[in-house]
Amino acid sequence: MNFESLKHLEHEHVMQTYGRFDLAIDHGQGSLLYDLQGNEYIDMTSGIGVNALGHNYLPLVQAIQNQATKILQASNLFYTEPMVDVAQKLNQASGMKKVFFANSGAEANEGMIKIARKYSWDHYHDENRLVILTLKQSFHGRTIATLEATGQDHFHQNFFPFTNGFDYIPANDMQALQNYFATHKIAGLMMELVQGESGVRPLDPQFVCEAAKLCQQHDVLLMIDEVQTGIGRTGKFFAYQHYGIEPDLVSCAKGLGGGVPIGAVLANTKCQDVLQAGDHGTTFGGNPLAASAARVVIDTVSAPEFLNDVQDKGTWFMDELKKLNLSKVKDVRGLGLMIGIEVAPEEVMNDLTKLRQKGILALKAGTATIRFLPPLIIEKQQLQTVLDVCKEVLG
Ligand SMILES: *Cc1c(COP(=O)(O)O)cnc(C)c1O
After folding, report:
1. Does residue 227's CB lie within 6 angstroms of at least one atom of ligand 1?
2. pLDDT of res. 163
3. Which parts of the chain sit beneath pLDDT 70?
4. What pLDDT digit, counting tens, does each position of 68-96 carry?
5. Label partner for 6 (CA 20 to 30 A): which of 145, 238, 354, 380?
6. CA angle 118, 121, 124 (to 5 degrees)
7. What is the pLDDT of residues 156-187, one digit of tens each?
8. Which of 142, 146, 227 has most ligand 1 atoms within 8 Å of CB, for mutation?
9. Ligand 1: which of 254, 265, 284, 335 to mutate, most ligand atoms within 8 Å of CB?
């Protein structure tokens, strides 16, 4: 099918919820993507932080093919080996204790929220101690509850009423954090450690450590949303491992299946048994197909050499970019291979288009940030090409 017919049919049959780039992806290889006309691009999007191992990564493809000949879905009424394997590997990589499998990031966050509320209710029986605190400029998903958890008003419009189960403070505001804990009773604090969707903003380590300390003092669950930052994206298996904190709950999704939808909630000793039979569930969660993919991703990404390589490439890229001193660039931020380049708000879309015309696919974050989330396996040579193009477009 040619591009124009595809676009036409999409407009006719698909709800117009996305502002799509003017491009149809056909296939990929490694860190390269090819459109319907056969044009080649360096993929700095990886399906929004999903294709951690790039495209057509042989061990991943083979694992999926092999699993497809055995069984795709069995339901959680039965024991299945790939799922149990993935749970064990996630616990080993994180030091957490038990896993609940979901199918997406929002769903994983819903699971965390349910655990936090049930934990608080079980221990305190206080209906005024069930609110989840989140940060302004956060992003936690698109279900009604995770939308409410998202600390950005413009996402809330059109979808009232909410459940009043969430409250917000500004990120990195130590005073607001301390005041809030001194004056409110809450069940949990949920946050991203690098706010992705709103502009690639790493949180201050001091703020994060103070938050962890206050949570512990008040028996408030520390819930880290690692949907975007997890599975090696920042150069550690989970981003919280940079901050020296011990979360009670961690959610992950995006990179976990390497392109196959899967999400997970990880719980520590304190929270591992909060949910009991019948408290929570999902038809597809942890299905053999998704789990067989996640198994390969975790095995590959959790190797120390792999994680060090991600960190080295990310640091090198950001240093080189800063050294270029490009006139349009206002700030370069990030951690590992989660990189944001702040430009003028009125220019960001135009810059993305120019990058695309020169063979680089990138994302937007917030109102003024170019976001790079390349496959974690991207080669330094390819990153050098991206730098060269940035120099032309943003100079
Ligand atoms: C993408 C994202 C989500 C939502 O994940 P979905 O799989 O789209 O439901 C939640 N939290 C963060 C931090 C994300 O980046």
Report:
1. yes
2. 74
3. none
4. 999 999 999 999 999 999 999 999 999 99
5. 354
6. 145
7. 888 888 878 999 999 999 999 999 999 999 99
8. 227
9. 254
